[in-house]
Design brief:
mainly alpha; 15 helices; about 475 residues; 7 strands
């Protein structure tokens, strides 16, 4: 039922593949490309998305984007069917699909492997393995593509695009795919069992594991159609399967392969950092629109233009310094002000709590206590005006007991964090940046380290605090 060309390549489209199906494939592929672009573009401004193991998903999305081009071109062609049956195009498609398709499914397998290691050894650092992941994926993809280029008689037009498909065996793509599917299925089952057995105190880690588990499940479900289609087309049961069943499996194959990138992007967008950034973006647009509307009202009624000032975006104590030409000095100024307010808040809150008294027996409420104090900044640092701020003290009784366990005396502790002597005793105090974007510095006596935390790290600290104290 196929017409062979001079290279024994089957370039004629199967009867099930119509022009409508080609355009559906292309439309799905464009959606997948959009999903991959969302993932890749969101990683540009956020360094934490480019760190291990999250960056593996970026490699996966890049390969998905390039692989989907194989299908997406049919949306824009006036006669996609004749284009699909072109011999040279068929050969190029087979090589393109072999390289990027194999790299794509290989990165899926790497995600499953990392998930398995994370489940078995949660604190295992796998970032040092990244080089070997790249070596494996790209060596396998390049080698298999070269092999396919010398075996044109195995190339067949299957779903509107050409693959290394001709029976009886295609080890270059379907053997790795079958192995990856079996492995990922095992990891998914093991991961589901592990998640169900996790304690309630590990809720945040459970969410991270579930998110990685979803990437593995999506891979298994989407590529199951390809395995099933391969079996009914050239396996031992090919003569026992009805034409309608083959057609249905063919559509499953096309939909799964072309939509995985978009489904991955939906999982990616459940990341708390992504959601938080999206909220801030819409809040910024809302404020910008409000400011524009306010400007229009001021222009229309000049008499009321000075009746009410808009809320400044910069704290009042910094407005006089925002015109500084040296941004490095401005950065130092802001950090010193932050540290001074932090020290002032620690010292004041500790003294207030000392006057109330620290209870000896902890209750569950001690691990959720939060005290908010309204304070006025210290005058220690010359050149900065005084300002008011709020300082929130978390679980003071718990941390007091932890300090006692390490024989930290209250008087010495208060002396170390005294804001009035912090910079005067250490005029050249310097700040260091961490990988997460936090900055930290030592107290002048080198006894303590002051460090800022991202909100998600603070939540994790409070999550493990009962067990840490215990």
């Amino acid at each position: 039922h196929y017409q062979l060309n001079s290279h024994n390549m089957v370039v004629e489209l199967p009867s099930v593949v119509t022009e409508t199906l080609l355009r559906i494939e292309g439309a799905f592929a464009l959606i997948s490309i959009l999903g991959s672009l969302i993932i890749l573009c969101s990683a540009i401004p956020f360094r934490q998305f480019r760190q291990h193991p999250t960056k593996i998903i970026l490699y996966l999305s890049a390969c998905d984007l390039l692989f989907s081009v194989k299908y997406a071109i049919y949306v824009f062609l006036p006669n996609p069917k004749s284009f699909a049956e072109n011999e040279d195009i068929c050969f190029a498609q087979a090589l393109w699909g072999q390289f990027w398709g194999l790299a794509w499914i290989s990165w899926n397998a790497v995600i499953s492997f990392n998930l398995l290691i994370n489940l078995i050894k949660p604190f295992k650092n796998t970032s040092k393995w990244t080089f070997f992941y790249h070596l494996y994926v790209w060596t396998l993809s390049i080698g298999s593509t070269i092999f396919v280029s010398f075996n044109q008689d195995q190339i067949m037009n299957v779903d509107g695009t050409c693959w290394d498909f001709k029976p009886p065996l295609e080890p270059e793509f379907f053997v790795p795919l079958a192995v990856y599917m079996l492995f990922s299925t095992f990891v998914a089952l093991y991961g589901f069992k592990t998640v169900m057995s996790m304690e309630k105190t590990t809720t945040e880690r459970k969410i991270v594991v579930i998110r990685l588990l979803l990437f593995t499940l999506v891979f298994v479900v989407c590529w199951s159609g390809t395995i099933a289609f391969r079996i009914v087309k050239s396996g031992p049961i090919k003569d026992k399967v009805s034409t309608s069943a083959v057609d249905a499996i063919g559509y499953w194959n096309v939909a799964g392969v072309t939509l995985q990138g978009f489904i991955n992007s939906l999982i990616w967008m459940t990341n708390p950092t992504f959601i938080f950034t999206l909220r801030r973006f819409f809040a910024y647009l809302s404020k910008k629109k409000g400011a524009r509307d306010s400007s229009v009202e001021e222009d229309s009624d000049s008499e009321d233009s000075g009746s009410e000032e808009r809320k400044p975006l910069v704290p009042k104590f910094l407005q006089d310094y925002m015109r500084m030409p040296d941004l490095h000095q401005l950065d130092i100024l802001i950090r010193r002000r932050t540290i001074l307010d932090l020290l002032h808040g620690i010292r004041t809150s500790t003294l207030l709590r000392q006057n109330i008294g620290f209870q000896e027996t902890l209750t569950d409420e001690c691990f959720t206590e939060r005290f908010v104090n309204k304070l006025t900044s210290s005058e220690t640092l010359s050149g900065l005006k005084q300002h008011s701020f709020q300082f929130k003290d978390y679980c003071p009784v718990v941390f007091h007991q932890i300090r006692l366990l390490f024989n930290v005396q209250l008087d010495q502790y208060l002396k170390s964090v005294d804001p009035d002597t912090f910079f005067s005793a250490h005029q050249q105090q310097k700040f260091s940046d961490g990988r997460s974007g936090s900055f930290f510095c030592f107290t002048p006596d080198k006894r303590y380290l002051l460090k800022t935390l991202p909100r998600y790290e603070a939540r994790r600290l409070f999550l493990i605090l009962p067990q840490y104290h215990k």
